[in-house]
Design a protein that fits this description.
One of its GO terms (molecular function) is NADH dehydrogenase activity. This is NADH dehydrogenase. Its cofactor is [4Fe-4S] cluster; FMN. The chain folds into three domains: about 220 residues, NADH-ubiquinone oxidoreductase 51kDa subunit (Rossmann fold, 3-Layer(aba) Sandwich); about 80 residues, Ubiquitin-like (UB roll) (Roll), CATH 3.10.20.600; about 100 residues, de novo design (two linked rop proteins). The protein has 18 helices and ten strands. A hairpin with a 2-residue loop joins β6 and β7. The longest helix has 19 residues. It starts with a helix and ends with a helix.
């Protein structure tokens, strides 16, 4: 950041309502109270019988001071700090705010804690450990933009996050902390329940399914601004005059379990896997980045890359929803991809041809290739199906699937050719149905 930008950021922060200084004990300001190991899949329930230590309102205030008020000056603070979304897209937050401010219809702001990626657990862990940090960010956002409604949106099966959130909301209500009433809403048990337009549609009384990709032109139409809960936790610190933490929340799968880690942006993927217990002597052949709708990356390409979105984008990759799944050297990447595509096809919105027909066809071709029983011309059909689906769906779900398939073709290209010639690997037969 240059001197002019630094000066503008300081001026914007000076315009915010005064709040108590951050206690020294909060340095460094971490988003989580600690790393944790979770159950293998599903909600972010810790493995083992120990209780989750949730920070209550008194401890939250002791650590960070009282919640600051939100004002329009926060727009410049967020823009100057370069805050981006941490739900998958990593879009600059200030762009979403400005888009939301263009109209004058009723505005709803949403903290999205619905982790629909089956492996992901960072958002649920954050809500279990420090719900008030997320709620501070939500209310500050509502005040800054003059919102009419503030909602915390959760996945339907995440009972642990819901309990922690309801207790925190009740604490705040009893102590009169917020002017806005915080609604806690649980969506359905569906992969698409955390998609932004699906949330918008559900909160307006419709089904929790993505809407067609067309811009809203009515300036008086209702507006909905959706931010991931990690993004709002970061906002709560920025509003207090703190810097955005130099850490990243990740869900990492290893032989020792599913781990939620808070790592520094300068850490490499080698560092991250070591922290998660991946055996150093047996490096993976590839990583799945971002979850089921993410992309494969060869281990040689990313092992020394920092776990930071700009560093990954420089090599054509991204963190997505902060999920890192290593693929063992003796596993079949094509079989694993076929299983993922089969799952994603079953979780489609079923609102258009690419979802209804394209995704199941992709899954079937991949399964045949992985098993070494694909008919002649299967490779050509795979590429043709990708082209027919990509960019043509009513929502972005099919695009995530074609991105996953494209990355598999690139990373496992040699295996793909071998399988097409009828030479499946032993791992493939056992993994297609997982």
């Amino acid at each position: 950041m240059n001197a002019a930008s630094t000066g503008s950021l300081r001026a914007a922060r000076a315009a915010l309502p005064a709040t108590p200084a951050l206690p020294r004990a909060s340095e460094p300001r971490l988003l989580l109270s600690g790393s944790t190991t979770l159950t293998p899949l599903g909600p972010a329930d810790p493995a083992g019988a120990g209780p989750v230590l949730t920070e209550d309102l008194a401890a939250h205030r002791d650590r960070l001071g009282f919640r600051p008020g939100g004002s329009p000056a926060l727009l410049d603070v967020v823009g100057g700090a370069g805050l981006t979304g941490h739900g998958g897209g990593h879009v600059p937050a200030v762009l979403k705010w400005r888009r939301a401010l263009r109209g004058d219809g009723p505005l709803t702001v949403v903290a999205n804690g619905a982790e629909s990626e089956p492996v992901s657990g960072k958002d649920g862990t954050l809500l279990r450990q420090r719900p008030h940090l997320v709620l501070d960010g939500l209310v500050v956002l509502a005040e800054a933009l003059g919102a009419d409604r503030a909602v915390l949106w959760l996945h339907g099966d995440d009972d642990g996050a819901r309990r922690a959130a309801l207790l925190a909301v009740d604490e705040r209500r009893r102590q009169g902390v917020d002017r806005h009433v915080i609604e806690v809403v649980s969506g359905p048990h569906h992969y698409l329940a955390g998609e932004g337009s699906a949330i918008t549609r559900a909160l307006a009384g419709g089904p929790a399914l993505p809407t067609a990709r067309r811009p809203v032109t009515d300036p008086h139409a209702p507006r909905t601004l959706v931010h991931n809960v990690e993004t709002l936790a970061r906002l709560a610190l920025l509003a207090r005059g703190a810097a955005d933490p130099t850490t990243v929340l990740l869900t990492v799968v290893s032989p020792t379990g599913r781990h939620v880690l808070e790592v520094d942006r300068t850490d490499t993927f080698t560092d991250v896997l070591a922290r998660a217990g991946w055996p150093v002597a047996a490096p993976p052949q590839a990583l799945l980045l971002g979850g089921y709708g993410g992309q494969w990356a060869a281990w040689a390409q990313v092992r020394d890359v920092a776990v930071h979105e700009p560093a990954l984008r420089a090599v054509g990759l991204g963190l997505g929803a902060g999920v890192v799944v290593p693929l063992a050297a003796d596993a079949c990447g094509l079989a694993r991809t076929a299983a993922l595509v089969e799952y994603l096809a079953s979780m489609s919105a079923r609102q258009c041809g690419p979802c209804l027909f394209g995704l199941p066809s992709l899954a079937g071709v991949l399964a045949g290739l992985a098993a070494g029983r694909a008919p002649a011309g299967a490779l050509e059909r795979l590429h043709a199906l990708r082209g027919a689906v990509e960019g043509r769906g009513a929502c972005h779900h099919p695009d995530g699937v074609t991105r996953l398939v494209a990355s598999a073709v690139q990373v496992f290209g040699a295996d793909l050719v071998a399988h097409a010639a009828g030479a499946p690997c032993l791992a493939g037969e056992s993994e297609v149905g997982r």
